[in-house]
Amino acid sequence: MKQKYTILFVSILAVLLFTMGVPAQPKDPGNSDTKEKQTSTSEDFEKEKWSRGTISVIGKKKTDLKRIPGSATVIEKEYLDQTRPVDSMEVLRRVPGASIRYQDTGLILNIGFRGVNNDLGRKVLVLEDGIFTSLNPYSAPEQYYTPNIDRMERIEIVKGSGAILFGPSTIGGVINFITKRPPKEPVLSVSAQGGSYGFFSSLISYGGTFGNTGIDISILRKQGDGFRDHQSFQIHELSFKSITDLNEKHAITTKFLTTAQDANITYLGLTTAQLWNHSSSNYAEQDNRKLQRYSGDIGHEWKITDHSKLVTKVYSAYTERNWSRQNYVRNTGANYNAVPDNVIKFYDTEPFVNRTGDTVYMLDAIGHRNRTYRFVGAESRYQLDYQFLGIKNQLDAGLRYHYETAEIKYLDGPSTPDAAIFGNGLGNPATGTVSSEYSLAKSGTLRDHEVNNTKSIAGFAQNSFKFYDQFSIIPGIRYETFTQSRTILREQAINPATNQPDPTSPSQEVDKGNRNVYHVVIPGLGLTYDIRKDLTWFAGAHKGFSPPRYQDALNNSGVINKIDPEYSYNYETGIRGDITNYLNAQVTYFDLNYINQIIITSSTSGNDSAYSAKNGGRTYSRGVETNVTFDPAKLFDASFKLPIDLIYTRAEAKMNQYSIDTSKVTANQSLLDFIVTQKDKNGNYVPYVSRDTATFAMGLIHPKGFYVRAEYQYFSGQYHDDANTRTAYWADSITDPLGKKVLQYLNITSDSSGETGVIPAYGIVNASLGYKDPVKRWSLFLTGKNLGDVRYISGRLPEGIQVGPFRQINVGVSFEL
Questions:
Q1: Is 592 helix (H, G, I), strand (E, B) or coil?
Q2: What is the structure's pLDDT at 349?
Q3: Which segments of 538-601 does DSSP mark as H helices, in order?
Q4: Tens digit of each residue's pLDDT (9 = 90 or more) over 149-164
Q5: What's the sign of the alpha-carbon dihedral 299, 304, 305, 308?
Q6: 66-103: burial string, b at 16+ Cβ within 10 Å, e else
């Protein structure tokens, strides 16, 4: 086995050494086409020179899209300036194939593409300037930190075969946030916007080029009250970026970023009646998450020849995430007719009193989930344009070493006797009288403690063979080997009957753990054909890959679960480019097969660790993505622009698996007959994937600086679970004591807790207008999000109905000095 992977690395190295000496052959300098290309190359070099320090997934030049053997999307600065998004999901929800889910004020990125689970963005590789942004990329890929959209120059999204140049977690594609490069001339930039729900964001940056060094320093402050009660947040962020040209061939880049977040974020969602009566309510007053993140990278770019370069980066990040969440129970089971003794507050969501799950009891204890994540790595990427046997080639190859570690703690906040709580006027659970103010302990007793780490080595290579300047064959391969280890230092006693922690037992010191080694080979193949200069047909096939988390691969008993990484086999074909000078389009058919999804069969809210996990989930997603931009003003050579955008995705994302209960097979029934007649989830829709999503937008951009834009976004209904629990309609006329009919909201399940049921379809309208002075470099803008103030269900995870953002009106200004 080791010999096979050694041969793979040697082969990649041999390709690098061989191709370094075979530069592209210049054509006749007297040829007019060559002169045009040389001019273009000079312009491209200037763009490339000032984009140093950035690892691109696609690239800045228009021709870079031709190197991508699959679907790709670029969101440019012009769109960001005209829409002034308040978070990243607002932008990414318009990408074809995207599914997003809000569970707070946009601080957590829940996103997936083409039927892939969007929970915490685990299955999508998210980068900033080519560097990881997740907690631990291999074993804790959750996007609890999301790059702030205020600092971004553009966003690149790749879902096709080009994703194998990056990893891990590429089943759902790659998102790369690009920050602005240092400007050539010294400039002070200031932008600020504020509006509804106490929202305010300000970004101050100063940058310029001094001698051979360009720098950019920015300070971001962002805050708001949130759309629900007790959901305020504050963000402070400082970033520094520099590019030093040592000479014509060598440049040094640096980037450092520090972030501090203080946010009242909760897992507790709304009940059905809360959504109807008071959709902004939030009873988890004590829940708070503090996040600190420090990251940096130092890079060296070597222009070896006019046709090749080597980029090497050393990167590191430290994230501390401490999350306190108050304990609570619902009026289910033993608590249906009996109020728990340790209740501080409880909430009857009238008019549905005495319904199972409609009452929430907030308890006098709090759990502190304190976690620290670190990672460090080094990566070299080599790019070369060369000719071999008369065939033009473009090579991308590289190697990476990566190490990450995590320390996970759970602290139990102290419980207080009833008399100490309710005897001091805080409330009476028997009558429902409560105090508006109370607080719980900020620390507690250590209950769970573990340390995890991962070491990985990756090698990758992709080569484009271009024939007759039109047709390209682009094979590629990626190799990943990584070792995960988990050491459990302290935990609750394990109940042998259930093999799960016993909450009635005290915490105990343990020292157990294990390690697991994985080897993954990820191939890909792409084809492109230039139908015309700016119109390309593409097709691709590649293997998607996502590693298991620590808790999935190594269970709480320290036993290896023998969990394989998750894989998908992805196929697509389509066209993109300028059909005419006034019509640009990308149309893609995709077929994704997800063959061994990790299924978690039980979990705990105490430390969020899975006790039982297995491979076995099979899903497929097939459909069409379209992204069309039409500008009728170009028909009349008008000086202004009238862009009309239509973005539509149709995705059939379904389960493709059987569950066999052999205990139910009768003596006269064959196993084959049983499989056919007892299908379980085969044909069910994948949760949190809309079958139809669409964005229709119209705009007006005047050369004197005025612009206006309006868009309508539609998302069809989704299921919350893979059992596809259906809606129970309210056939009876239910009235409250005042005789007012309630809950005439279609498609809300009869489950009062709000945790189960469908997510109804919804549509929202956004608009923006502004003025940007083309000379003096200042602007004024006004934006409206969800102008109809549609109160919609964004999801039912983690614990109840999570609503999407309400209507928000913001006004802002920006200027440069």
A1: strand
A2: 61
A3: 550-553
A4: 999 999 999 988 778 8
A5: negative
A6: bbbbbbbbbbeeebbbbbbbbbbbbbbbbbbbbbbbbb
Cβ atoms of 628 and 575 within 8 Å: the answer is: no
DSSP letters spanning 196-224? GGG-EEEEEEEEEEETTEEEEEEEEEEEE
CA 758 to the chain's CA centroid: 22
Q: What is the DSSP string of 331-348?
A: S-GGGSSS--TTEEEEEE
For residue range 661-677, list pLDDT tens digits in order.
555 555 555 544 444 44
Which pLDDT tens digit goes with each residue over 374-430? 999 999 999 999 998 889 999 999 999 999 999 999 998 865 544 333 333 344 444
User: Are 689 and 716 spatial neighbours (Cβ–Cβ below 8 Å)?
Assistant: no
Q: Are 632 and 582 in contact (CB under 8 A)?
A: yes
Give mean pLDDT, residues 578-600: 84
Q: How far is CA 633 from CA 81, 356, 585, 646, 699, in A?
A: 21, 59, 17, 17, 11
Which residue(s) pair with 814 in the sheet? 191, 779
With respect to residue 293, please indicate whether it lies within any of the assigned structural domains: no
**Would the pLDDT of 223 be above 90?**
yes
Residue 148 per-residue DSSP state: -
- Distant-in-sequence, close-in-space partners of 749: CB < 8 Å, separation ≥ 6: 272, 725, 727, 728, 756, 757, 758
Distance between alpha carbon 330 and the CA centroid of its chain, in Å? Answer: 31
Stated pTM of the model: 0.87
150: phi then psi, degrees, rounded to nearest 5: -60, -30
On whether the CB atoms of residues 685 and 649 are closer than 8 A, the answer is no
Alpha-carbon distances of 763 from 95, 215, 251, 711, 760, rounded to whole Å: 16, 43, 48, 10, 10
The answer as to whether 503 is a domain residue is yes
Specify the CATH number for the domain of residue 769.
2.40.170.20
Judge whether 200 lies within some domain: yes
Instruction: Give the mean pLDDT of 628-632.
Output: 96
Kindly state the tokens that stand for 663.
């205990």
In angstroms, rounded to a whole number, what is the distance separating the alpha carbons of residues 151 and 147?
A: 8
Which distant-in-sequence residues (6+ apart) come within 8 Å of 124 by Cβ?
111, 112, 113, 116, 169, 171, 172, 173, 174, 175
Q: Which two tokens stand for residue 68?
A: 């991508």
The number of distinct structural domains making up the chain is: 1
Domain span at residue 367 reads: 2-288+308-816
